[in-house]
Structure prediction request, 379 residues.
Amino acid sequence: MKLHFLGTGSSYPTTQRGVSATMLQHDDGSVWLFDCGEGTQIQAQKVTVSRQKITNIFITHLHGDHVFGLPGLLCTISSQLGLTEEDLKKKRPLVEIFGPLGINKLINTVLTISHSPLAFQYRVHELVPVKEQYPEDWEDTQVDVATLTPHPSELPGTRITAITDSDGNMHWLLKDDEQWDVRAGWIHHRVPSFGFVIREKDRTGTLDMKKLLTLGIKPGPMYGQLKGGNSITTEDGKTITPDMVVGPPYPGRTVVILGDTSDASPLAHLVQGCEVVVHEATFDNSLKDKALEFGHSTPLQAVAFAQSIGAKTLLLNHFSQRYVATSKDKSKNEESVALLEEQAVAALGGSLVNVQCADDFFVYDIPSQPRNMATTQQC
Ligand SMILES: [Zn+2]
Ligand SMILES: [Zn+2]
Prediction:
């Protein structure tokens, strides 16, 4: 898996930096997009990852720097899919979109009023916030789509409500299939904001081809049976069990991607150890009061949260546009992202968390390793 940071700034895109949009590229090439701020479609054209591979989009919250780019990106993907009329008559691709209640109205309104057809279908799953997330004036915000006609490309979506466990902790269940477990947790911000916990399920180890061929087992259906955990019997009557020819399993990796927050602790119960957490650091430590006032964090807060959930690596993003990217200024002065990185490193206090400030187009690789290697990995 790889994380591709398309935009690492907050508020509005500049000529130097985009706003929030992060791609999670899976090993099979499919892509999940997290947030889609204004200008994401430009940023997305500057990377080698194909936009057409986006199968799922997750929106953390409905502030413009996280969602204004979504209708435009959907239309761009549509126009670049290169599908023929014949393709479209058959089965059209599907993009699943997850986001807070109100995301469907936003997409529907923009696509409908602009008369924008799509060459793929989409389905929106809305996370219904809990009262702890609502600002005082939230009642005045009309987020429902009950009165809207569905867009021609829209399939019926779902409403996902919070599940409360026996300890009173809440989460939203987005996916639970053979490969993935994806849950959301709420985090403090000025509007309902979520963080996503993406948990890959353990995968079967690789087949030892050399050993299989030595045993006289040629490629064929038996390989699938062994990988599926079943024993086989060869033509000469030998029984081969999976543990003889299948390597150790690959432990699933966990990635946590948060929306804007001044305190992500309500989500912490969902994570006990993860490969990487993406956390905002809008302002440096000296502007903590300003950060809190606007529902944001400093490097010090982000490190404390990463340590609380046992993250191996902390990647910071969502920097105020006052800070110049590390690729352009390494001076660590008060207007440089390098300063934020220095503050984050200083906050580590010798703990094992790796920390880095992401720059636009920064790529972070999360390798897959068999269990016996992963347990000895130094972080
Ligand atoms: Zn933001
Ligand atoms: Zn925000």
Notes: The radius of gyration is 23 Å.
